[in-house]
Amino acid sequence: MAVDVYHEGERAAQRRAGLLDQGGFSGRAIRSEMPEVARKFLLQQPMLVLGAADTDGRLWATLLTGQPGFLDAEDTGTLTIDARPAPGDPLHDRLRTPVPVGLLAIEPSRHRRMRVNGQAVPTELGLEVKLDQVYSNCPKYIQKREHRWEPSAARGRPQRSGALTGHQQRWITGADTFFIATADREGNTDASHRGGNPGFVEVVSPTVLRWPDYVGNAMFNTLGNLEVNPRAGLLFIDWTTGAVLHLTGTARTDWDPAHAAAVPGAERLVEFTITEAIEIAAAVPLRWSDPVASRFNPPVLQGGS
């Protein structure tokens, strides 16, 4: 049965949402090998979101970049990545050794994304990932952007803190996109995308964020992981400057329908508590055009939720 591709947390989240049957239908898209159409998609991409746990077990999400072709598949069960996190990246040290990873290839210009999960081992040029799961999923809330290369900017030194600065709070409240890394009880990791109109992520305090969970494909990979493992990592990108903001901490799902009813489009809410923030200026050599918002984005209340 298709539902067998899900672990206990994912099935629990589907039951809580009343969507177990729909999740089973969506699960038919999950494969253990890469079809040729997926390989061709990856060959075209200049960036890849990667989620993993660091040497202390904290989850982080980061961004790997390269000229198209830096992602390839030598066979249907292996993905090669000719890039690795730079020094100062929270996953730089951890990816020197084998580690479970969640990967997300996303193409904002064409509203496409693909998830790849597996076991990564370091290579001379980057990483080799033995695949466990490969699938495309809901592209609804992707904002359209075109990218260009600007490799000349000097990468900034990591700025670390235990809470968000005022600048970082404004960055987040103005964001229309972020990425999230979560893992199940055994450490198998997912990387996923969240999008909405600016303001959809609420800064509750310098250490707490909250966002709505909108209707999707009913797989509940992220929320299912949070049912069994609250650790999570977030990644915000400054699409104009190439700066990144890494956050690590814990997350929980608020399943109270009364709370969700107060936020347009919300099926439920997710609250994230920050334990560390790392900001790096000019971290990636990509820059993006101004966004064209997805027509599926729900409205955002003035002043947040």
Automatic annotation (TrEMBL):
Protein origin, superkingdom: Bacteria
Pyridoxamine 5'-phosphate oxidase N-terminal domain sequence ranges: 165-268
InterPro entries documented for this protein: Pyridox_Oxase_N (IPR011576), Split_barrel_FMN-bd (IPR012349)
Membrane spanning stretches: none
Signal peptide (UniProt feature, chain positions): none
One Pfam family here: PNPOx_N
Protein's name according to its UniProt entry: Pyridoxamine 5'-phosphate oxidase N-terminal domain-containing protein
Source species: Actinomadura meyerae
